[in-house]
Fold this protein.
Amino acid sequence: MLKYKIKPFCNSENGTLKEVLLCTPASYNVLGSEVPAVGFAHDFIAELAIEQHHLLKLKLENFGCKVHDVNNDLKDELWDRLVNRIFVRDVGAVYGDKLLMGVSGNEIRQADFSYTQSALVDWFDADHTYFVPSCVSLEFGDFLIVSPECVLINTGHRTNNKEELALFLFGLGVEEVGFVSLPRTMESLHLDVVCNILGGNLFLAAPFLKFTTVSVYRKSNESKKYELNTIDEFVGRHGYSIYWLPDKNYLIDYTNFINLDKNTVLVNEEVVPFYQRQFTDMNFIGVQVNHLQHGAGSIRCMTMPFVRGSE
């Protein structure tokens, strides 16, 4: 139990990261036929995952982040079997000075959402906490802050009901919401395995996103009509240049990073050479997460920013 209430603030994907949430992996291995049953990609050895979790935590702390581990507040037999609990990004997100609580679109995640959210409601004042409407599902791996007034969301798989989501977000101060619909595959399970914002003005994207339509809803449009954009048009309007990633089936190494500030990024150490060659004005900190990725998620999936700088 925290001895103080966290004051959330986050209006970007690249403000200086000051406080962040992680969750220690469960102590169970996931092997053989269990792997697809829980939505993982490969065999998952708890001891290796816990070692890499500690490395991830250490890298964040060395940068100067205060790291909260929700596992410290949650102890019972069921909780220890919820192997997807490490993917805290999906459970919620801070937007502005509000903590938004998600609803899972997959029954296997509903329990770990419930447990983690039960801890978070004790860590934040009630007037900073908002639950998405019960008529929608929203996993925040599908949620990207494009600007303080605009977000990009993937719907059609784990996240659903565009109109109600837009209305909910408009009520919280969002002015514009772009919606895409990704293929329902492991390789595009959430938005953050196919795209991400890098540094101050780059939008990294999987090649197939050039064929994706963005449905743009605006708070100012009372008719509830939406316009259609290419992904280039949408992000370009908000000051981003698009960078098309390599043509690979699975891009999680290249997209599922976390910006520590506008010039520093925490990435899978195996792709540090690629990033250093392509983006010479950025600082890339590598961390070994290859075994954690057997759970079908990576660095962004396992981190929920609580506080970022407004710069």
